[in-house]
Design goal:
Number of helices of chain A: 15
Oligomer: homodimer
Largest sheet of chain A: 6 strands, mixed
Chain lengths: 419, 419
């Protein structure tokens, strides 16, 4: 907070004071980016902050956050999720090392808790009573959860196709859940109208620039967990584009303030049926496309802020790839079987993209990569059910069990010791 | 490992060397308990161990664990879950303080990861290739996950009523899932038979004494997070009885080695429709009962090891209470709305029990309590759906939204700024 110098429009470059004049650029309607006095944030000052106790892991990075970590904060323990080094995926994919960051272990089950924590902190610090957003699910539950943790009301707009688990979680958190009988775009538009009319705090990731600031803490953590090194590549799935933008900004800032020596290349991964940003990255033009994928967290036809995403990937020297739903399904099983991680389809898409990037020669065998698992598989069991096999049904009799195992899983019978 | 002195039968008191002769007492078939040389484990030695780096949070407590933490271990980051202090529940229940330990944030979503981590470590260290258990769900997914993390096979026996989310998670982890067309008791019996015939490593919590050793680490963590203090009460839901036994052993050991000055009283909570242990606690006799509750993780008609549970609660000076499914449902909503925690029904039962214990005068207003949330609500969404309201469906039009909100949630419209 103390180091924020300006909000700068990423479209027209207009610059505003450190107190946001509005969520978007008053001059052109563009999305704003929060700038810090990077000269004043020395590597030493940034690292010193990490040693001080903080109410939750992510608030330790206070030197580069746009809220006052001494002020009221949501009471959820966000961040501090595991980074698994040297997973079997390295050998499987033929890479030097593949590590996995399990951000599905955040309190409400996704990386979006990082963004919502900053948003609810900002809302609290501005005296807002109600926070609102439109979301395919994870932003919604994280927003409702962070709000509930401090007794703030939340109004959540969800599209018709939001999975049941996500709706139930919202209701348990006491959110007012508005299911818009339409797609994500319609839910987003209605939320924007209502937020403006009722004066609620706006947690929409594409509009409100503080969201990227929360998301960037996952990059800080990955680097910190590597001893302030970075991998060659970081693979992140892309829907609205804000997560990859946040990850990119985090790594860029670490190098800018001198904590790390370099930045990783970003691998932005979209579903082939929802490839608006990937196509705009490749061909230019407006980012619009379909929303045809079972990975509902990235099923975004009209991303509201593709620009930050595209610029982040470009600035990192990275790439974007597209993957099919089949590839995503295979990646879910691979993460489960090789790493014991149950990722939601949108999260597994990042691994599917890494597999594709290796096949396409984008990522080279001598390189290292980190896959960011952005959401917990328990949030979308129907998605997992498409790819995972069902159980072996048996009556409670050993002879029958033996017959069925011999057919379905003979390998577990190979170590018979007593017969 | 280095401090294990004996395995002692809790039924006939026979004592065996530190290498288990079998999972159960060869003399009488009773359940074994692992004993340590508590004289050799000074408080200083225990605390020194915490400062040394460990592959995951729970392995830091190596002085009181029955596996070699320098040897092969499952590659999941178990433990280190948040303890939320001074939650609004204190004021709501009229207690000095109510804190909540969110063990649903373990890698596969439940406290049972602690037990499975120790079991898979023991299996690895004994050279086992396959691990097996019967479980209503959480033990199963944690067993499959810990096994998958090190490429070990798992064979999981589930009863017919296991919720879908839990089966899907098992399949993603690559477990061989045997759905026994019967109840938990039948699944357990068939697993015991098969484990014996095929020589698999036995992860059944009630039989294998290492399970309690993993579960006790949640007690170590609560005390550590309180600066080596303990609450007056710790509320834990009870199914098979091993979790409450583990929690009790952990707190008992901390006092035994001189790290804490006292032990908390245990509040064991059962569902009224599945109250085998609670009834045996009250009336004596064999622990048998129904399994009639929507809290499937504690729907156990024939607990295989009630004795450790009952003795742990007695030794702590605690109590057992029973709660209805309605009370459990209300506790789920209370946890969600006051603490932003989405707990599975069996986990919310612990809070429901604390509410009942306050009403019954068992827990007094000047006392402090910790509620252990043993599993994530995302694992059993159908349970939550019973208690949480549905969304407000609206077409994508502001006028219609306004009409519906005025009916369903007028409070969020009270801060209108523009009209």
């Amino acid at each position: 907070m103390r180091n924020v110098t300006a909000l700068k429009c990423i479209s027209c470059s207009a610059s505003y004071g450190s107190v946001p004049p509005a969520y978007i650029c008053p001059a052109c309607g563009g999305v704003l980016d929060i700038e810090y006095d990077y000269g004043a944030v020395s590597a030493g000052a940034f690292l010193d902050g990490l040693a001080r106790p903080a109410p939750a892991h992510m608030w330790r990075y206070s030197a580069l956050l746009p809220v006052d970590v001494g002020g009221p904060l949501p009471r959820l323990s966000v961040g501090g999720t595991p980074l698994y080094r040297r997973t079997p995926l390295g050998e499987e994919l033929g890479l030097c090392e593949v590590m996995v960051k399990d951000d599905g272990l955040n309190p409400t089950g996704s990386l979006k808790d990082r963004a919502s924590a900053v948003a609810v902190a900002a809302a609290l610090q501005q005296g807002a009573k109600t926070v609102s957003c439109a979301s395919t699910g994870n932003a919604a539950s994280s927003c409702a959860g962070c709000a509930a943790s401090v007794g703030m009301r939340s109004v959540i707009f969800v599209p018709r196709r939001a999975p049941q688990a996500k709706l139930v979680q919202l209701a348990v958190f006491g959110a007012v859940v508005v299911r818009v009988l339409g797609d994500y775009e319609q839910a987003f538009s209605l939320s924007a109208e209502a937020i403006s009319v009722y004066g609620w705090y706006n947690r929409n990731a594409a509009i409100n620039p503080v969201m990227v600031e929360g998301k960037k803490t996952v990059a800080f953590e990955i680097a910190e967990q590597m001893g302030w090194e970075v991998p060659d590549w970081v693979a992140v799935s892309v829907g609205d584009g804000c997560t990859v933008a946040g990850v990119g900004k985090g790594f860029w800032e670490l190098q800018r303030v001198g904590v790390t020596a370099r930045q990783p290349k970003l691998l932005g991964v979209q579903a082939r049926g929802a490839n608006a940003i990937s196509r705009a990255f490749r061909e230019g033009g407006e980012a619009r496309g379909g929303a045809d994928t079972f990975a509902d967290s990235i099923a975004v036809a009209v991303p509201r802020n593709p620009r930050k995403a595209i610029e982040a990937v470009r600035r990192s020297g990275g790439a974007m790839v597209e993957v099919s739903d089949d590839e995503i399904g295979r990646a879910m099983l691979r993460l489960g079987r090789s790493c014991a991680l149950f990722a939601e389809p949108a999260a597994a898409a990042a691994l599917a993209g890494l597999v594709a990037a290796v096949e396409q020669g984008i990522v080279a065998p001598h390189e290292t990569a980190c896959v960011v698992v952005t959401g917990n598989g328990l949030k979308d069991v129907a998605g997992a059910e498409r790819v995972a096999g069902g159980p072996i049904d048996v009556p409670p009799e050993l002879a029958e069990l033996e017959r069925r195992l011999a057919e379905a899983a003979p390998e577990v019978m190979s170590c018979t010791t007593l017969r």
